[in-house]
Amino acid sequence: MATTPTSDFPFDDLQGLLRFGHGHLKDSCFLLLQVADVKAAKQWLADAPVSPATQNGSRPKTALQIAFSVAGLRALGLKESVVRDFSDEFIGGMAGHESRSRRLGDVGANAPAYWAWGGDSENVPHVLLLLYAEAGKIGAWRKKVETKLFAKAFSLAAELPTLDIGNVEPFGFVDGISQPDIDWAGRQSVDSHSRDGFSNRLAVGEVVLGYRNEYGQYTVRPLIDPAGDPHAAALPPAEDRPEFKDFARNGSYLVLRELGQDVPGFWQFLDKASGGDAAQREQLAASMVGRRRDGSPLMPLASEAIPGIPAGDTLNHFNYLPDPSGTRCPVGAHVRRANPRSGDMPSVSGCFFSRLLKILGFGLKRYDEDLIASTRFHRLLRRGRTYGPLLTPEQAVKADAPVAERGLQFICLVANISRQFEFVQNAWVVNSKFAGLQQERDPLLAHRQPLHDGTPTDQFRRPDPAGPVQTVAHLPQFISVRGGAYFFMPGLSAIRYLAALPTQGDQSP
Amino acid sequence: MIPQSTFMIVAPVRDGELENLRGLLAGMNKSVGLADPANPLVPFGAFERLHMARFVIIEAITGDDIKAFGRERRPWQPALAFLGDFDGDRVDFLTELAERAEEGLQQIFAHCEGFSKAFDLLSWMVTHNIEPAANYVNWLGRTVRQVHEEAALHQCLSEYLPQIVAEMGRDNPRVLRQKLLSHVEMQKHAGLLKLSPEDPTPLAWMIRNGLHKIGVPLVLLLLSPLFLILAPFFALRLRMLERSDPELFIRPSREHIEALAYLEDRDVSNQFNVFGDIKPGLFRLLLFKFLMLLTDYVARHVYNRGFLTRIRSIHFARWVFMDNNRRAFFASNYDGSHESYMDDFINKAGWGLNAAFSNAIGYPTTRWIFKQGAEREQQFKYTQRRHQLPSEVWYKAYPDLTAIDLARNSRIRKGVEIRQANDQAIRDWLGEI
């Protein structure tokens, strides 16, 4: 496989968010925009101060990232012959079809019809603008970005709230600990024969388009024949088909979901389920999340090396191999569902013969072994931000806990929306049969709708070494979807290409 | 043990009747994608031995693909296929079907060529039945009755266990087990639970199955010197074809995918049909037939205990040669979403998939039959969706239950009937309830 040394990687064409979470920029402001004046929008884009992924010693004091929905790309005049080569999920949109909503668990109270934004597939915001600044300086940065030209170009569809409450998410758990280690230098083979166990290192092509993914393949994306489009000359060539220009190279799909979190509801339910015992409540919460509040895992650290996680990383250097039945960390716990840390093979075995038997499906020691898909094909690079005022669990359990809108502006970056985001959401989070579990969905994230034939799914089961599982029944829904959309976050040269698109009337399409 | 069998009754649809037929079939559904078990045409739920059934209209939607091989499109008249998986003997079951759903089936088949009410329905169905080239059953001998009885047992135990844990604590597994067992006995006595003993295995089936089990390897062994001589020529020809066969990287239309997806994820299981042309030439056909012979053999004698290689989410699957061996049809019932079904296959059993489908037009390029192919993820997913056909009607006798659930319920039942070796085994059993 072709390797790209780090130094050669074109970080200057990549938006910074793919490489950095901008964690030191505590303030943020997420804007959903409609293109009001196409010409002005392109003019503004031509000089937009979009932050690249380069590193030049000092950390930036501000950042700006930009992404477009399919409606946005069309509004700017991107030709249909280019648009149609994006993935179906992106073109169809997050709320574009009932079937997609059903798979994502956007049903019942989560249904797009109730969303604050994005729910009307005919009226999806064109542009997502992500602004970041140091604490207290976001107002000034926004003012600087929103020039006169900007005001002419775009109309504000919605301003998504964000608020820094430290390194925790609204329920009070340290968040964003586990992220894939993007293999910018291409050091790791994607060959299935050399990847039995879990590795946290991920092929660039899983998050950035135009590079090899974990199958060693290039994800389908819009390629442009420069012969028919002189403007495309400045775009990078397609690595797999050099005769074409790669509009999507160094770009990524950006999934945004506004998730409302019922913080008092969560803690008060747990308090009741624990009979008012604070220590038990804490334990139950930790087993639902799969980590303690300080982020420490419920699993012991792994003794064997895990590629992409330093041995000293006490929050992350583990997998679930020592705990197949989930007595330490329940199989249904949120973080175990969202990132099961499974490898290509059920258990790493050295000898050729036993490997062959495993490939043929024999030699499993437990009934619940090998039920989870290999994690490396289903990773998400998360870049979310919280909103709403901080409410500690101790405050939240009180009956008079102050009510407020709280939650997460969930963002993830992926190269294949259906295989990554939608798969994780469907097969791992919402699925009541994940890993052979019995009628339970993600205790934090999922809705609680019964199955088609009426089987309830509103429970959470904690395996117990003594035998009978401990069941928490009648779990209410703690998180509700408030909005969402699929965006494409282009590389910098693709932004320039968009800015230089001929305006309608200038040239026949 | 009652072995499972299949039927697949196929007949071309009369010209101009396609839309009427679709309308009639749609009336059998209770909700999108799921049949009404009590629909008046074929009341599936009334057939106690029926696991799964479906009506599919088989159309050659990818019939033009063969042009890439320099051949003309082969004619194909859309055909109605009625498929089912059930317990026991086929003629027995079809007789029951003809008796209890005569009018409905006549009404349906009246849309097909060569059918008349005047004919004897049973013999018409028998003559229009197509045998699969290979057939997979998740668990040989697990009957519909057993599935329902064991599900009821699990339900009963899972409702009672928390009560006795609240009473007695969770520390003494033997006491808990004893309590559960007496509860089961009481429920059985009250007629609320039933655990029927296993039926005797039909002798004729046992003999046939035994002969097949020994016969196929024996014949292959006898032919092995011939295979050895042919091997170099085979290898040469195979690699030539694998290099030269055109790979069709055609994206399916969004409308087609949406129409398929609309039917999916209504239950925890889904239905799946694909239909397409076999690659031209005798070599490809013979290779396909040979691989199907092996597939059928291992499915029959090896993979009949809950897993097909590393895949454990398939209830039933079958491969069928049609149109004088020019086309192939595959149907399955699987758990989970379509995306997870495909990913499972690519990642866990891509080699098997390659063996089973690489002789069909449009399949991604393979190397030495087993390598690459499905690992060309996007090509594979495109071609698979392009060849997929919706089921007009789909019935599953045990909604909300996956193959994993069924296997667990059987283990729980076993734990009721057989004494565990030690406390740990009892704890494991309690943990599954």
Explain this structure.
The complex is a heterodimer of chains A (509) and B (433). Chain A has 509 residues and is α+β, with helices and mostly antiparallel strands. Chain A has a domain at 17-256 and 484-499. Chain A is 21% helix and 17% strand. Chain A has 14 helices and 15 strands. In chain A, strands 9, 10, 11, 12 and 15 form a 5-stranded antiparallel sheet that branches. Chain A has a 4-stranded antiparallel sheet with strand order 2-3-1-4. Chain A has a two-stranded parallel ribbon with strand order 5-6. In chain A, strand 13 (460-464) and strand 14 (467-472) form a beta hairpin. The longest helix of chain A has 13 residues, at 418-430. Residues 1-5 of chain A have low confidence and may be disordered. By secondary structure, chain B is of the alpha+beta class. Chain B folds into 2 domains: 4-141 and 201-396, no CATH class; 144-198 and 402-432, no CATH class. Chain B has 13 helices and 12 strands. A 4-stranded antiparallel sheet of chain B has the order 1-5-4-12. A 4-stranded antiparallel sheet of chain B has the order 6-8-9-7. The longest helix of chain B is centred in the middle third of the chain and has 42 residues, at 203-244. Chain B is globular and about 75 Å long. Chain B starts with a strand and ends with a helix. The model of chain B has no long low-confidence stretch (mean pLDDT 96).
Topology of helices and strands:
The complex is a heterodimer of chains A (509) and B (433).
Chain A: E1 27-35, H1 38-46, E2 62-68, H2 70-75, H3 80-83, H4 88-92, H5 98-104, E3 127-133, H6 138-145, H7 148-153, E4 154-160, E5 181-183, E6 201-203, E7 223-224, E8 245-246, E9 252-261, H8 263-273, H9 278-289, H10 334-338, H11 352-359, E10 381-382, E11 385-387, H12 393-396, E12 407-414, H13 418-430, E13 460-464, E14 467-472, E15 479-489, H14 492-499
Parallel strand pairs in A: 5-6
Antiparallel strand pairs in A: 1-3, 1-4, 2-3, 7-8, 9-12, 9-15, 10-12, 11-12, 13-14
Chain B: E1 4-12, H1 18-26, E2 29-31, E3 34-35, E4 50-58, E5 79-87, H2 90-100, H3 102-109, H4 121-127, E6 134-137, H5 144-168, H6 173-189, H7 203-244, H8 254-263, E7 269-277, H9 282-301, E8 314-322, E9 327-335, H10 338-357, E10 366-367, E11 371-372, H11 377-386, E12 391-396, H12 403-417, H13 423-432
Antiparallel strand pairs in B: 1-5, 2-3, 4-5, 4-12, 6-8, 7-9, 8-9, 10-11
Helix pairs in contact in B: 2-4, 5-6, 5-12, 6-13, 7-9, 12-13
